[in-house]
Amino acid sequence: MTNVMLSISILEDRELVDVLNARAKELHEAKLLYQYGLHSLTEGVLGGLWGGTKVPACTLFGGAFNYLKLEEYLKLIAQIEWIFPRSVQVFYMDEGDDGWHVYWPHQGARSGGRSR
């Protein structure tokens, strides 16, 4: 299982995540990606579950996937024409990982957690 969180600027066009989800669905239907679809963690009901005394100053989307083709999914995220690409971060953690990995699509750079 792979956990994925996508962080984007609060100024970013939220509909670009809908574009991402639609493209992932197309790949899923073509049998090129097993899972698709990120949901907001900071809007609506889930946004109200955050602790503290303020609303989140970020826009997060998340999903948990079985058999995710992670490399293909990260490439798909990098192909989106983000308005604020420097703010886009992808946090991911596979079942055997000790922590989160971070991927910055605009740089193609990664850092973070250790795999067991």
How is this structure best described in words?
This protein has 116 residues and is of the alpha+beta class. It has 3 helices and 6 strands; from the N terminus they run E-H-E-H-E-H-E-E-E. It has helices spanning 15-29, 44-47, 70-79; strands at 2-8, 39-40, 59-65, 89-94, 101-104, 109-112. A 6-stranded antiparallel beta sheet has the order 2-3-1-4-5-6. A hairpin with a 4-residue loop joins strand 5 and strand 6. The two termini are 14 Å apart. The model has no long low-confidence stretch (mean pLDDT 84).
Layout of SSEs?
Blueprint: E1 2-8, H1 15-29, E2 39-40, H2 44-47, E3 59-65, H3 70-79, E4 89-94, E5 101-104, E6 109-112
In short:
This protein is of the alpha+beta class and 116 residues long.
The rounded distance between the terminal residues' Cα atoms is: 14 Å
Helix content: 25-40%
Radius of gyration, in Å, reads: 14 Å
Question: How is the largest sheet built, in terms of strand order?
Answer: 2-3-1-4-5-6
* Count of helix runs: 3
Query: What portion of the residues fall into strands of 2 or more residues?
Result: 25-35%
Q: What kind of sheet is the major sheet?
A: 6 strands, antiparallel
Average pLDDT number: 84
| General form | globular
Let me know the number of strands.
6
Q: Structural class of the helix and strand makeup?
A: alpha+beta
Low-pLDDT segments: none
Assembly level: single chain
